[in-house]
Every structure is written in structure tokens, then in C-alpha cells.
Amino acid sequence: MGTGCSKCNDLYKKVTELNSELGLGADVKKVEDLREILAAGVMTTPALVVNGKIKSTGKVPGKDALKKYLQEEI
To answer: What letter would DSSP give residue 48?
Structure first.
């Protein structure tokens, strides 16, 4: 989730690449609508939300952290 800043785009790219690399087949969605972001409870972007759970806000986590967040929700 994010409004389109460079960090938001970087997070989306990393998550998309990991999804493919891990063969998860998850539906990765980039949410840029501020109302939808706020409705999810996110106050700082970029944010990673997996299965409705906020995993990270305000930063782009490293690859290992992202992998952990995704695998926790499989």
C-alpha cells in the first residue's frame, strides 16, 4: 500500500519478485487509493498487508523479512 512514491514502488517490485521466486502464486495487489489505505488501518506508507494483516509500515523491509512475512501467511 502506498501513494506511488519510490519506496512504495520498490516494495511492490520486491514482493512481486519474491512471489514469483517462491512460487507462491499469490494475488499481489498495489493499493494506491488513500481511502482504502486508511480503511485498512495504515497510517504510514509504504505498507505491506498480507491476508488483511499489516506486516510492515513506513519502510521497505529486506528480502529475508519479506520472505518471512509472506511465508507466515501461506
So the answer is: E
pLDDT tens figures, 34-52: 999 999 999 999 999 999 9
Tell me the three state secondary structure of residue 46. coil
Buried b (16+ CB within 10 A) or exposed e, 11-30: bbebbeebbeeeeeebeeee
Q: Which domains does the chain have, with CATH numbers?
A: 6-72 (3.40.30.10)
C-alpha cell belonging to residue 63:
528480502
Coil/strand/helix, residue 18: helix
Burial of 43 (0-12, 13-18, 19+ CB in 10 A): exposed
